[in-house]
Amino acid sequence: MARVKRAANAHKKRKVTLERASGYRGQRSRLYRKAKEHVTHSLGYAYRDRRAKKGDFRRLWIQRINAGARANGMTYNRFIQGLKAAGVEVDRKILADLAVTDAAAFTALVELAKANVTANVPAAGTSDAA
After folding, report:
1. Dihedral sign, CA of 99, 102, 103, 105?
2. What residues have CB less than 8 Å from 27, skipping those under 6 apart?
3. CB 36: neighbour CB atoms within 10 A?
4. Environment class of 113 (CB within 10 Å of its CB; exposed 0-12, middle 13-18, buried 19+)
5. Quick one: DSSP state of residue 28?
6. CB contact at 8 A, 106 and 68
7. From first to last of its 130 residues, what are the pLDDT tens digits of the chain?
8. What own/partner pairs with CB < 8 Å and gap ≥ 24 does 14-23 have?
């Protein structure tokens, strides 16, 4: 059987792993076995958190919209309901930006939502089940 010489490939692979682990503390940045273990975990965390970041930002936008809506005497739930009833298609990222940077425009949207929520809410004591 032929002899397999792979020292160059092995050194290259280890070098890449150690370069990826260059900022880690202690043995994790110097010993290949420890570095490989930690780099593997790090790549898994990076993959997971690229997806989690989207939900984190959505939560942040909702908190900002809620704060802006409550400052104008309305809850987040009713605000979104009113915008949908009015046919306004503005996503939460833009709404959050308006709530933080342009209070006048956000107040106008809140007033629009208030007008549409009160128009579409059934009267007390009546039910829609038919």
Report:
1. negative
2. 34
3. 17
4. buried
5. G
6. yes
7. 888 888 999 999 999 999 999 999 999 999 999 999 999 999 999 999 999 999 999 999 999 999 999 999 999 999 999 999 999 999 999 999 999 999 999 999 999 999 998 777 665 556 555 4
8. none
